[in-house]
Amino acid sequence: MPRPNPPTPYQEVNRLLAALTDGLQAQFGQKLIGIYCYGSLIWGDFDPSLSDIDLAAILSTPVTTEELEKLRGFHARLAQAFPAWEDRIEAQYVSRQSLACFRTQETTMANISPGEPLHFVPCNADWLTNWYFVLTYGRALAGPPAAEVVPHIADEEFFNAIRTDAAAWREYVQNTRRSRAYQGYAILTLCRAYTTLATGKQVSKREAAAYVAEQMPGKRPLIEQALAWRQARDGMPDETTYDKARRFVLEMADVIEAQFPPVRNVP
User: Which superfamily does 11-148 belong to?
Assistant: First the structure.
């Protein structure tokens, strides 16, 4: 498969992506349809010292148990070769068939993400936003353009999924209690959800923070704190900051629900 030159402005990231692409092509051969990079590395706000790398590898058939074991070894070797990126790669290994039916039929795919080893996970409608990002923003590291292999997802369908995800943070925010960095992530995620629905655009967390701070000046101090917390990698409990983060998430979820009702009869 031909390879674009170079895929990102970051030399070390490009070396990692080249090694990953070569390794996956060697393992899967003709079964590998394409590899796509998405997330902050593509739409901006990527921080080489902090950000994760988001990838999707699309295959002609699902990953087998034997292939999963080989993939685990490959990711372990990749982490040894690029130690700065250990536990900072989020990748889905999904079949074209699973992409074609994810809305109506749950199948299985392989996934690795920060804090979670490579393992099988359900591929279902919960993954709609990821597939929209791959379809709309995905940069091919190998294979055809994403639009040729990822089924169409209407913008309205994506916006409905963003609303659903924002509402889910009302409960999920409790998982941020022991991490100030995660609290910052939650605040910025709700900022981005609001910005996406208000503007119709997917922007970086930093851009979304600036937009919400301008629209809601009273929230600016906490948003600025969240940008700083995002840089923290400690797991120190801080009930004071947790309470602030939880209140922000609940308020923003309510605002999103009130201002942006779901779209019915999505095409």
Answer: Beta Polymerase, domain 2 (3.30.460.10)
